[in-house]
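Supplementary Text 2. Reproducibility record for the structural model of the 59-residue chain.

All settings were left at their defaults, and a single model was retained for analysis rather than an ensemble. We include the record here because the model underlies the residue-level annotations in Supplementary Table 4.
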Amino acid sequence: MLMGTLFDMDGMIADTSPYHKNSIQQFCAQHGIEASDEFLREKVMADFVGLDIDQLRKL
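Retained model, structure tokens:
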């Protein structure tokens, strides 16, 4: 019998960032886009957290 369900939405229990990064890079490669670390920071993470790249660099 299921007693409960645990959701880790912010990475406090498990750091899933490397898996997300890998998945995004694989998806982009399949579509002919090179997704370097800089590309992910500037194009993906900035949009994800709602900041422009200059604001993100200050963090």
